[in-house]
Amino acid sequence: MAQAVMTIGGKREHATTTFGVINPATGVVFAEAPDCSQSALDDAVDAADRAFRSWRLNEDARREGLRRAAQAVSAAQAELAALITAEQCKPLAAAAYEVEMAALWLTNASTLVLPREVLQDDAMAYAEVTRRPLGVVAAITPWNYPLLLAAWKIGPALLAGNTLVLKPSPFTPLSSLLLGEILAAHLPPGVVNVVSGGDDVGVWLTHHPAVRKISFTGSVATGKAIASAAAPDLKRITLELGGNDAAIVLDDADPATIARDLFWGAFINCGQICAGVKRVYAPESLYDEVVAALAERARKVRVGPGTQPNVQMGPINNRPQFERVTELVDDALAQGATAVAGGKPMGGAGYFYAPTILTNVRDGMRIVDEEQFGPALPILPYRELDDAVARANATHFGLCGSVWSSNVARATEVCAQLECGTTYINAHLAIVPHLPFGGVKWSGIGVENGQWGLDEYTSLRTLYRAKG
Ligand code: NAD
What we know:
- This protein has helices at about 40-55, 60-75, 75-90, 90-110, 145-160, 175-185, 200-205, 220-230, 255-265, 285-300, 320-335, 365-370, 385-395, 410-415, 450-455, and strands spanning about 5-10, 10-15, 20-25, 30-35, 115-120, 125-135, 135-140, 165, 190-195, 210-215, 235-240, 245-250, 275-285, 340, 355-360, 375-380, 400-405, 420-425, 445, 460-465.
- It is an alpha/beta fold.
- The strands form five sheets. A seven-stranded mixed beta sheet has the order 14-15-16-13-12-17-18, with helices on both faces.
- Bound molecules: nicotinamide-adenine-dinucleotide (NAD).
């Protein structure tokens, strides 16, 4: 059985104990990953701390290092994609795309600017601000996009002059561990360290005194635990947490035209995406048509192991998540919801769940109020648009929201009323490296991507020189 290694201080490191990584298509362990000890974690943070002293000094070298890293990730696309599909179980083509996007994000980070801004230059004084790195960054990632979300953190953290310790989810450690080995060949020792293990490794990392910044993507509950861990030491945090994104269809939309993008806005990656459509509000006048168009698509999706050719959707990634989606759908059905497509697990080995469209649902049901993070979508009717907007906003979450309409001016007005970090018109999930991405309320603190994401890995340093 394959056994992956950690990367600590530029070296390949085994651990004395390992844990099994499960293939979601079979429910069976197919590889072992190192279970990082606390002393190995300390070694990783020490290595990052030592590397920081020189890494922070040469911006050109950092840009060049990131460019080489991006090329190396692209060159390893087949190997990385195979690992992502093995551990996450998304279709192989989607895994290859994730690798391509990870390389794109690293390349994009290599082009970001660390501006020197002159704020005053007159008879009295000269004053400027520059951006300085923070030190060792703890990067902690979830299991839905293991490689891409790691790249989102590695790129800007390194360009700003920080060094980093990455801890992937125990459900999907392998692609990140290979990424560590790939990067180690192109970056100075200790600049990027990758460790694997359970949640306890994340706890040690977030409490480590040498860590100055925590960049976390994952659940709200863990985000709150990390905010608490950061508080006593006043570590900086960026938290990208869950979402319960609403899509509001306006009465001038054409259901047939919007169905494809609306459907995949919810079901891409088997619905396991923070910024996916989690509930649809459709006007009574179009409700049946919207339901029919989405249900038809749901019934036709080709579901299977990610390794199988032509598959469009894999299984749910892990047993706890599979049980959670099953529980939320069962709860809705018990309260009178109707599954017009799917509605249950597909049976057999693995965590396959039939793409599900639910009607006869209402706000207050768990499938509507909570983040399902899986292939089940409730569709709710509305009479008054103001009411739909109020219901869309009546949540602790605030990641993204979308409005679907043939009237851009009207859709723009509705977008302005949505309480979330990103609003879309006739789209959902258009996430690109040059636009800021982040949530409000319980969906997070801070943003990733673009110049704004880079700023989060820096502190401002003001220089004031008196004249005359
Ligand atoms: P999770 O919070 O359970 O785990 C995420 C990571 O945190 C894992 O690496 C885990 O080992 C680690 N961890 C767990 N407890 C910890 C602790 N106390 N201290 C430090 N680290 C700890 O999340 P998950 O189940 O892997 O991912 C699913 C969640 O992630 C969903 O809620 C989803 O919405 C969210 N998500 C958000 C975004 C975003 O950008 N906003 C993107 C993807 C996923």
